[in-house]
Design brief:
Elements: H1 12-23, H2 40-55, E1 59-62, E2 68-72, E3 81-87, H3 100-115, E4 124-129, H4 142-147, H5 153-156, H6 167-173, E5 191-199, H7 204-208, E6 212-218, E7 220-229, E8 233-234, H8 246-263, E9 273-282, E10 288-289, E11 292-301, H9 304-325, E12 328-336, E13 340-341, H10 344-356, E14 361-366, H11 372-375, E15 381-386, H12 402-421
Parallel strand pairs: 3-4, 3-5, 5-15, 6-14
Antiparallel strand pairs: 1-2, 2-4, 6-13, 6-15, 7-11, 7-12, 8-10, 9-11
The structure holds glyoxylic acid and manganese (II) ion (2 copies).
Length: 424
C-alpha cells in the first residue's frame, strides 16, 4: 500500500526515548556525554545503533572504518540511494544532541516510512559516520572523509591523541593503510543526495525565534599544531634575561590568534574565528622554566580568502615570536580545507518543506563543521538546523527543546520523501 506521502508522521515518543537511551552511553558528571572516537563508549554507541537498525528491519552494511549504513529499499532498488545521517561520537564532556540527533532522527524517519508501509522511489540509507569530532586526534569528519575519498596520507602524519596514540596506527589496525585510503569511497553514482539534521550549536535561531535553520554553506578549518622549544631550566637560579621560556612564547601566540582573528570576525570581513583549544607544557612543574609548549590552532571561516589571510598572519607571528624569544618552532599541519557551499536545489526544497507546514525558518551558514561538508564533495547535500538553547554546544549545557527535535525530524522525513521521489 502506498499512502499519500504527506501523511507519514514520525513517532515522537520513540524518537525521544532512543535519543535519551543513546545519551546514557558515556554519561558523566553534570549530564556530560563523552564518546571519543574509537573508545569503548563510542563503540557501544555504534553497537546500540546496529541493534536499533536490526530491530527496524534495515539492511545493515558496515565499512572498514566502522561507518554504519542501514538501508530501506525503494521501489527501484537499483536507483541511487538518499543518504541521511550524522555522527555518534562526541567531544570530551559534550552534550546529548550534537550528531546523535541527526542519526536517531534519520533512523526515526526511516522507521516511520517502513512502519507506515510507504515505499519511496529511491532507497534510503541511515548513516552513522565514525569520528566526526576532532577532539581526540585533531582530525575531523574521518568517516565521511573516507566515504568521500578525501583522506590523504600526508594529512594523517601529525594526527595523534594526548597520549601519543597515532591515528594512523589505529587505522592500520583496522586494515586501512595509505595505499587503500580510497577503498571506502562511495561511488557517487550510487548516491542521489545526502541530508543531515543537526543542532545549530550557535545563538542565531534562538535570537530570531525561528525553530528551523536551512543551511547554505559550512565553514571549514585550517588546523595545525605549533611546538615551541626553549630551554627547561631552574626557576630559582636562571636570571630573567637568560631564559628561553617556551610557555611565554606560546602565551604570546594565544593572544595573537585572538587578536588577528578579531580583525576578520565581522560578516563583511569573512567571519573568521580562531582558537587555541589545547596546550601541553613540558616539564609542567612549578619550579622549572617550561622548555616545550605545544599548542593546537583552529582557524575557520565561511570565506576561504579571509581564512587564508588569517592563517598567513598567524604563521608570520609565530616566526616573529620565535626570533625575538630565541626559541625554536615547528608548525605541524593537520588539515586545510575550504568552506563548502551546500546544494542550492536542496536549500530550495528544504525551504519548501518548511513553507508547506507554515514553519518559520532562517537561511544561514554553519560555523561548525559537519559530515555534510565531506558528502557535498560527492553528492548534492543539504542540512537542517534546530535551535540550541543559549547557543551552547560542545558542553554538558547543550540543550534543544524536544518540540524542536520532533519538528526537525518531521521536516527531515518530509524532505527525504521529496528527495527520494522527485527528480532533483
Ligand atoms: C564539529 O563539531 C566541529 O568542531 O565543528
Ligand atoms: Mn561537534
Ligand atoms: Mn556534530
Amino acid at each position: 500500500m502506498v499512502l499519500p506521502t504527506t501523511a507519514v508522521t514520525i513517532n515522537k515518543r520513540r524518537l525521544l526515548r532512543d535519543l535519551n537511551a543513546v545519551s546514557r552511553i558515556g554519561i558523566g558528571d553534570h549530564g556530560s556525554v563523552t564518546r571519543l572516537v574509537f573508545s569503548i563508549k563510542e563503540l557501544r554507541g555504534r553497537q546500540f545503533l546496529i541493534h536499533l537498525m536490526r530491530q527496524a528491519g534495515l539492511q545493515i552494511h558496515i565499512d572498514r572504518i566502522g561507518n554504519i549504513f542501514g538501508r530501506l529499499d525503494g521501489s527501484n532498488p537499483k536507483a541511487p540511494a538518499v543518504l541521511v545521517g550524522s555522527h555518534l561520537d562526541t567531544v570530551l564532556h559534550g552534550g546529548k544532541f550534537d550528531g546523535t540527533m541527526g542519526v536517531i532522527g534519520a533512523l526515526e524517519a526511516v522507521r516511520a516510512l517502513k512502519e507506515q508501509t510507504v515505499m519511496l522511489r529511491s532507497p534510503v540509507e541511515v548513516v552513522c559516520f565514525v569520528g566526526e569530532e576532532s577532539s581526540r586526534f585533531g582530525y575531523s569528519t574521518l568517516g565521511s572523509s573516507l566515504v568521500a575519498g578525501e583522506v590523504h596520507g600526508a594529512d594523517l602524519s601529525n594526527a595523534a591523541d594526548a597520549q601519543g596514540t597515532r591515528l594512523e596506527d589505529i587505522l592500520s589496525s583496522l586494515g586501512i593503510y595509505r595505499s587503500n585510503l580510497r577503498s571506502m569511497r562511495r561511488d557517487p553514482a550510487s548516491v542521489k543526495a545526502y541530508l543531515e539534521l543537526h543542532i545549530e550549536q550557535g545563538p542565531i535561531l534562538e535570537a530570531k525565534k525561528k525553530p528551523i535553520g536551512v543551511v547554505t554553506s559550512i565553514a571549514a578549518p585550517t588546523r595545525f599544531r605549533v611546538v615551541f622549544t626553549g630551554q627547561a631550566d631552574h626557576s630559582g637560579t636562571t636570571p630573567m634575561e637568560m631564559r628561553k621560556d617556551a610557555l611565554v612564547a606560546a602565551a604570546e601566540l594565544v593572544v595573537a590568534v585572538e587578536k588577528i582573528s578579531r580583525r576578520y570576525s565581522r560578516m563583511e570581513k569573512g567571519r573568521v574565528v580562531g582558537t587555541v583549544g589545547a596546550m601541553k607544557i613540558e616539564p609542567g612543574v612549578i619550579n622549572a622554566i617550561p622548555g616545550k609548549a605545544e599548542l593546537s590552532v583552529d582557524i575557520r571561516s565561511i570565506t576561504a580568502s579571509a581564512k587564508n589571510r588569517v592563517v598567513r598572519l598567524v604563521q608570520a607571528k609565530i616566526r616573529e615570536i620565535a626570533r625575538r624569544r630565541h626559541v625554536r618552532i615547528e608548525i605541524l599541519p593537520i588539515r586545510e580545507e575550504n568552506p563548502v557551499p551546500l546544494d542550492k536545489r536542496l536549500v530550495h526544497l528544504l525551504k519548501e518543506c518548511c513553507e508547506a507546514k507554515g514553519i518559520a525558518y532562517e537561511v544561514m551558514p554553519s560555523g561548525a563543521g559537519h559530515d555534510a561538508m565531506q558528502m557535498a564533495k560527492i553528492t548534492p547535500s543539504g542540512m537542517l538546523f534546530i535551535p540550541s538553547r543559549r547557543g551552547i554546544s560542545h558542553s554538558p549545557l547543550e540543550w534543544s527543546d524536544p518540540e524542536d527535535i520532533c519538528l526537525g525530524t518531521q521536516l527531515l522525513l518530509d524532505s527525504i520523501v521529496r528527495v527520494a521521489n522527485e527528480k532533483i
